[in-house]
Amino acid sequence: GADRAAFMVTLLNTAKLNDVDPQAWLADVLARIAETPVSQVEGLLPWNWKAKSARSAA
Question: Which Pfam families match (predicted)?
Answer without folding.
Answer: DDE_Tnp_IS66_C
